């Protein structure tokens, strides 16, 4: 009379029938006679699709997607919709799969048609959210809920390799940028090398100038010491000469003292004069030596000072010239590099603009030819349909419309215009209308017809080409004045 049913944790019981107005959803219930119980499985199911859609630029692509869809359990109204509409079918059946796939494909295609390929590719997250919201709105009427949606990377449709071309474009841009970076690094390296060479030359010139100044100073100090030594030697020599003179004077004095006894008065006076003269000579020589020493010192010192000033000025002038030459060479190299860079950029921009213009013209020309071909194809198909698919009638109509028959007639007229054909009329006088000729056999008539055909044929060949028949074949009679033979 009755049975007691209990649903599992992921199930619901949908009871209909006697005593129930519409549907009773419960986890456990008594099932009486006149009632029907259906078990609703609430477990979500994964649906894998490859949706083929088209962007706003009419570029087709494939969108692989995986949707995890199941009944909405938190709302009783949604669960009632699911029980009414989806419970008679298995969730893995083709009916449910096609229903969910149709909703997802329809919303995805509508959304993709309103977005460009760049927007879809760059805004994958926003595109996924839009698809999720749109599909969820449609699935609400079936009591279904999207638990998870995973949109994979877009895939090219065979014959429309947009993403592969986009990848090639990105690779080429990266390669071109790398070449530009290499050229920029090379330019910086060359400029830096030139700057280092200039700094090296400047520092070398500075060190050479300082070395020359230091060597000049040391040379002047050496000359000063040499003059000082020479002066001291000269003074020492003068002192030695004075000592020698003094010794000689003492010797002469002693000699005079020994001879003083003989010639006291005369020798004493002479020796006193000699001694006085020697002292005076000593003083003169000493003063002369001191004067010569001071003069030599003054000359050498002034010459050393002048040489030192000249060497310093020359070193400063050479350093200044080297600095200016290095600065001029560096400035020239910088300007040359800037000019080459500007020329390269201008040439590249001009070539790019020319290539873009040629490509745009070719695209427009191809679009025009395609549109013209489509229009002509539509026109011909319409004519063929109106003529009952009669290709001969269509051909004749097109030839009449294009004036083909008139052109053929004109060409034929031009071909025979100016010709003056000669017409020869031949008759056979031997033929009669009596019964004897009619009684001849058909075979003989055929042979006679061949022989009757030969004279006109040979005559025509002679008139048109001037050639006569061979002698063994016979000769043609002379034509009469009226042209009848």
UniProtKB/TrEMBL annotation:
- Record's bilayer topology term: Lipid-anchor
GO cellular component, alphabetical, reads: caveola
Q: Keyword Cell membrane, does the record have it?
A: yes
Sorted alphabetically, the keyword list is: Cell membrane, Lipoprotein, Membrane
Tagged with keyword Cell membrane? yes
Q: Where in the cell is it found?
A: Cell membrane; Membrane, Caveola
Annotated ranges, domain Band? 28-186
Family named by the database record: Belongs to the band 7/mec-2 family. Flotillin subfamily.
Q: What is this protein called?
A: Flotillin-like
Q: Which organism is it from?
A: Acorus calamus
């Amino acid at each position: 009379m009755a049975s007691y049913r209990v649903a599992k944790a992921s199930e619901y019981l949908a009871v209909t029938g006697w005593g129930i107005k519409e549907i009773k959803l419960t986890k456990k219930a008594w099932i009486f006679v006149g009632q029907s119980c259906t078990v609703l499985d609430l477990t979500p199911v994964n649906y894998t699709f490859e949706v083929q859609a088209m962007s706003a630029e009419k570029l087709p692509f494939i969108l692989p997607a995986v949707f995890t869809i199941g009944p909405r359990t938190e709302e009783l109204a949604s669960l009632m919709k699911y029980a009414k509409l989806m419970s008679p079918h298995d969730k893995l059946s083709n009916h449910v799969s096609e229903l969910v796939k149709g909703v997802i494909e329809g919303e995805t295609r509508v959304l993709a048609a309103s977005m460009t390929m760049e927007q879809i590719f760059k805004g994958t997250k926003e595109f996924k959210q839009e698809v999720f919201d749109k599909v969820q709105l449609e699935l609400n009427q079936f009591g279904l809920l999207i638990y998870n949606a995973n949109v994979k990377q877009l895939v090219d449709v065979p014959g429309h390799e947009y993403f592969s071309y986009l990848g090639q474009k990105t690779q080429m841009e990266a390669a071109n940028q790398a070449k530009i970076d290499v050229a920029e690094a090379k330019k910086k390296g060359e400029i830096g090398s030139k700057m280092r060479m200039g700094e090296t030359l400047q520092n070398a010139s500075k060190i050479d100038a300082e070395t020359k100044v230091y060597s000049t100073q040391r040379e002047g100090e050496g000359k000063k010491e040499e003059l000082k030594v020479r002066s001291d030697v000269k003074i020492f020599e003068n002192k030695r000469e004075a000592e020698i003179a003094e010794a000689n004077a003492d010797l002469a004095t002693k000699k005079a003292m020994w001879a003083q006894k003989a010639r006291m008065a005369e020798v004493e006076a002479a020796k006193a004069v000699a001694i006085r003269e020697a002292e005076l000579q000593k003083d003169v020589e000493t003063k002369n030596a001191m004067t010569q020493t001071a003069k030599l010192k003054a000359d050498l010192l002034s010459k050393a000072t002048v040489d030192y000033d000249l060497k310093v000025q020359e070193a400063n002038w050479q350093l200044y010239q080297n600095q200016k030459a290095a600065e001029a060479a560096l400035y020239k190299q910088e300007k040359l590099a800037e000019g080459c860079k500007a020329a390269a950029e201008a040439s590249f921009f001009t070539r790019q603009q020319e290539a873009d213009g040629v490509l745009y013209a070719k695209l427009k020309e191809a679009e025009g030819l395609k549109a013209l071909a489509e229009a002509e194809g539509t026109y011909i198909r319409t004519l063929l349909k109106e003529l009952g698919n009669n290709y001969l009638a269509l051909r004749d109509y097109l030839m009449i419309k294009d004036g083909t028959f008139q052109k053929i007639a004109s060409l034929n007229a031009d071909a025979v215009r100016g010709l003056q054909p000669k017409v020869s009329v031949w008759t056979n006088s031997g033929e009669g209308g009596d019964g004897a000729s009619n009684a001849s056999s058909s075979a003989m008539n055929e042979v006679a017809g061949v022989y009757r055909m030969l004279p006109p044929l040979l005559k025509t060949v002679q008139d048109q080409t001037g050639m006569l028949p061979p002698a063994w074949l016979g000769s043609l009679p002379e034509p009469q004045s009226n042209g009848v033979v």
